[in-house]
Amino acid sequence: MSRHPEVKWAEREEHVYLTILLPDAKNPKVNVDPDGTFTFSATAGTDNHLYELNLNLLEKINAEDSKINIGVRSIFCILDKAEAKWWKKLLRGDGKAPHYVKVDWDRWADEDDEIGAPNDFDMGGMDFSKFGDMGGLGGGLGDDAMGHELDDSDDEEISKPDEKKEDQVKGEHSASEAKPPTS
C-alpha cells in the first residue's frame, strides 16, 4: 500500500505553487497533464516505502510552461495556469482537501494583496535610506518642524546689557553735575 507525502500549496493569479515534502526521495516521477491532473510517485525512507499522489486541480494547466525542481528535501513545482485567474480552492470536487494537502503560508498572498511576486512590494518611489539620519524633528532653534525660520515680529525689543550700563552711567553723570537743591 502506498503512502501520501505532505503537500503545501499557494497561488498567484498566473501560477500555482506546489511543494511536496519528501526528504531523500528516490526515483521521483512527476507528471502534469493539461486537464489539471497532477501525479507524483517516489520511494523514500529506510524501507523504501512507495509514496504516491494524485491531485485533480480545479482548472487546466499549461504543462509545457510549468517548472519542476527536484531537491534533496522536497520537490517544488510552479504550475502555469491555462487561464490567469484566482482559484477558490486547489482541488476539484465539493469535499474538503485531504489532510496531507496544506496551505503554504510562506508563499501565500491574498487576491487583493497581490502586487507581484511576494517580495515585489512597491513603496511608490519613496527613499527610506535617510531615515537613520533624522535625529529629532526640525532644524536648530528658531526653526519650525519643517525647517522654516520662525518670524519673531511680535517679540519686544530688548536692549543689550552693555547699552543699559551706558545709559545708567550717563544718568549718574548728569545727576552729579546738577546743582544740589537749595532750601
Topology:
Elements: E1 6-11, E2 15-21, E3 26-32, E4 37-44, E5 49-56, E6 61-70, E7 74-81, E8 101-103, H1 161-177
Helices and strands: which structural class?
Answer: mainly beta
Percent of residues in β-strands: 25-35%
Count of DSSP strands: 8
- Low-confidence blocks of residues: 117-124, 128-139
Average of pLDDT: 79
**H and E string:** EEEEEEEEH
Radius of gyration of CA atoms, rounded to a whole number: 39 Å
Please bin the fraction of helical residues.
under 10%
Distance between the amino and carboxyl termini: 136 Å
Overall spatial form: elongated
The largest pleated sheet is described as: 5 strands, mixed
| Total count of helical runs of at least 4 residues | 1
Strands across the major sheet, in which order? Answer: 6-7-2-1-8
Short description:
This protein has one helix at residues 161-177; strands at 6-11, 15-21, 26-32, 37-44, 49-56, 61-70, 74-81, 101-103. It has 183 residues and is mainly beta. It has a 5-stranded mixed β-sheet, with no helix packed on it.
Throw out a few tags for this protein.
mainly beta, 3-stranded antiparallel sheet, 183 residues, single chain
Characterization of this structure:
With 183 residues, this protein is mostly beta strands. It has 1 helix and 8 strands; from the N terminus they run E-E-E-E-E-E-E-E-H. The longest helix has 17 residues, at 161-177. The protein is elongated, with a radius of gyration of 39 Å. The chain starts with 5 loop residues before the first strand and ends in a 6-residue tail after the last helix. Mean pLDDT is 79; it is low at 117-124 and 128-139.
